[in-house]
Design goal:
Elements lengths: L1 H30 L13 H15 L11 E11 L4 E5 L2 E2 L6 E3 L6 E5 L1 E5 H5 L1 H13 L5 E5 L5 H7 L2 H5 L5 E5 L16 E5 L9 E5 L2 E15 L8 E7 L15 H20 L5 E7 L7 H8 L8 E7 L8 E5 L5 H14 L5 E4 L7 H6 L4 E7 L20 H14 L3
Parallel strand pairs: 6-7, 7-8, 8-9, 12-13, 12-14, 14-17, 15-16
Antiparallel strand pairs: 1-11, 2-3, 2-10, 4-9, 5-10, 11-13, 15-17
Length: 424
């Protein structure tokens, strides 16, 4: 009978684990869908995601923090976005956005034909020579755009060339050839002219170009954090905070968007998982959940929260920020581990005892996610992210289909046990 019960318990655990993974997959896949527009600043993708998260929290019976609303509005001052056309033709060949080319996030738009004047690596590295060539370009009207032929640059040369295209785009339309992986971002400024990066494998220095790019500057963009709360099972003054940013990069034209599956639909889905667990298994701590917007625009949502806290920051016992939760084959990294060594030791002890993850890597403080502003205000915090073979980041390939979730259960176990054992 004991053996039968043991086997039945194992089956139940496996069933619950599979159900949890299916639920997190559903949430992640939904957040990555085209209808959410990359959870950015075109078509109010961030607001669509925020409303979805409110409903997900409510579905599991988790509501607002005391009398505050679940949505905490704030403004992002200055956002460059690309809501409509995004077309580049090279000798009448249509290039594919996100794969053959991207525009700089701060790029201006244009609807015109470009006849580029070629600038070599050697010319760009020599300030006096570059000045002579630019003067020739202007005086002799050698085209109406610059073509920076940087595709063969590597190592230190690549570092020396960084920023030249952006500097020149203040004066002229620029096409810059690259041979590295495309990485996009959120533009918080706007250049005077378009800056287009084209992959070396497809670029033609002798080609003419037809560009149709719509760029739009928004002086003040309204976004919102999502906040949910579970009180402790007994009266407690201290609160554990779980955070994750739900925003991503949005759209680069009507046909191309950045799904942001690993970064950070996966962490947002884990936020819901943690809420479900603590709703069903109340903690000795109060548990607050915050899904931040504006992280990709420069940690704007978390900065606003720390400047306008809904609870006293000194009452936060510990904050755990979740980002890039879709893999874990090589373990996890804990940012701020060197600042909070006692808590990091607890994390590693739990991992060693239960044989959960391949590695819990220690990293020092860094201003690379939403934990940062809390740390600056004296709140003890970890930023935890997974390590694994999935290297898609800020590109069109960071899709739901690329996520393994192979260590999702183990990470959940590690974090839940960490909260249970954390000293008050």
């Amino acid at each position: 009978m004991l053996k039968f019960l043991s086997f039945a318990s194992l089956l139940l655990i496996a069933f619950l684990s599979n159900a949890q993974i299916e639920e997190v997959r559903r949430i992640t896949k939904t957040l990555c869908s085209p209808e959410f527009h990359g959870r950015g600043y075109v078509n109010k993708g961030d607001s669509i995601a925020a409303d979805f998260l409110v409903e997900e929290f409510k579905k599991i019976g988790v509501g607002a923090y005391k009398k505050t609303p679940m949505l905490q509005p704030f403004s992002i001052e200055g956002v460059n976005r690309f809501p409509k056309e995004m077309s580049v033709l090279q000798n009448n060949r249509q290039l594919e956005p996100g794969i053959h080319f991207i525009v700089d996030a701060s790029s201006n738009g244009a609807h015109k034909s470009l006849e580029p004047f070629v600038i070599s690596i050697e010319t760009a590295l020599d300030a006096s020579l570059l000045g002579v060539e630019l003067e020739r370009f202007v005086q002799e009207r050698k085209g109406n755009a610059l073509y920076l032929d940087f595709g063969s640059a590597t190592g230190d040369t690549l570092k020396q060339l960084a920023g030249i295209g952006k500097a020149l785009a203040a004066y002229y339309p620029v096409i810059e050839v690259v041979n590295s992986k495309f990485t996009w971002s959120v533009g918080r400024e706007k250049l005077n002219h378009p800056l287009i990066y084209i992959q070396d494998s497809i670029a033609d220095r002798n080609a003419n170009y037809k560009v149709d790019i719509d760029a739009e500057w928004v002086q003040s963009y309204q976004s919102q954090n999502v906040v949910a709360y579970i009180p402790s099972k007994k009266l407690c003054a201290k609160t554990i905070v779980f955070t994750a940013h739900y925003d991503h990069l949005g759209r680069m034209g009507t046909d191309t968007y950045f799904p942001g599956a690993n970064d950070n639909a996966s962490g947002t889905a884990m936020l819901i998982t943690m809420a479900k667990h603590f709703k069903e298994n109340p903690s000795d701590y109060n548990i607050l959940f915050v899904a931040f917007a504006g992280e990709e625009a420069g940690l704007v949502g978390s900065k606003f929260f720390t400047e306008n806290p809904i609870l006293k920051l000194k009452k936060i016992r510990f904050l755990i920020n979740l980002d890039i939760m879709g893999s874990g084959e090589e373990g996890i990294t804990a940012v701020n581990a060197t600042l909070f060594e006692k808590e990091f030791q607890l994390l590693t002890d739990i991992n060693d005892e239960q044989q959960l993850l391949a590695r819990v890597k220690k990293r020092g403080p860094a201003a690379n996610s939403d934990h940062y502003w809390f740390t600056e205000e004296g709140v003890p915090a970890f930023f935890i992210y997974t390590m694994g073979p999935n290297k898609n980041y800020h590109d069109v390939f960071d899709t739901y289909e690329e996520l393994s979730f192979v260590e999702y259960d183990d990470i959940t176990t590690l974090l839940v046990t960490f909260v249970e054992r954390l000293e008050k």
